[in-house]
Amino acid sequence: MWVFILGDMSVFAVLFGVFMTYRDKQPALYAQQQLELHRSFGAINTLLLLTSSLAVVVGVRAIRRGLHRLARASIAAAMVCGCAFLVNKYLEWSSLLIHHHKPQGNDFFMYFFVLTGLHAFHLILGMGVLVAVFALARKPKLTKGQVAFVEGGTCFWHMVDLLWVVLFALLYLVH
Amino acid sequence: MAAQLGSILRNRVTLVWLGLVVATMASWTIGTEHGLHAHLATTIVLLVAFIKVRFIGMYFMELRDAPTPLRALFEGYCLVVATVLIVMYLVAG
Lengths: 175, 93
Prior knowledge:
By secondary structure, chain A is mainly alpha-helical.
């Protein structure tokens, strides 16, 4: 799982670099277009994912201690945060598209939609992993393989969180 | 269940989460106010972002307790990507 996580992080690192390269070529355009974003969407989504990560940590520790109800409640709370992130993202994208800020409009919005879309895809995959972890949290005893899945799968969720931390800084705050 | 939750949350990981929330609010303020020089503000924002990434790795992903090579790879990632992005930004001026 760590090969996959570090590989995915490396792909995103290249994309961060590509974004910066194109930003450096047209700093005025990027600065102007960035002002069209509502930074509160990005900040709220960061807080949602950080909170979901804490809930996942609690869930994993509860599974290790055999506290099944607490584990399921914590993983469910993390999934609620993940759903709230997606709703927030849908509202943000809708608001941008209504105001004619489309991916084909300019480089900034092309990268904005590609990067946030790719991240949202990872988040949806992560939600699938959390559903599986939620199901495993019902079991009174996990096999070694299931424990490895829980630990690896929840690390994938934390990766989704840390990638958003960088995207929030790059897309919404760098000026 | 509340007592069990309390026993798990009475831990350094909760403080880390609180620190990450405070750092997010601080970055938001620094990144949106125009009182600071743009280069300084952006450098701080990027540095804070990768410090947050490191803390997510060490405490949420439990890399503090991972084998040294894995931990070193992760810490190296944070250091290299943060440095490259900040240098790219500053060189572009």
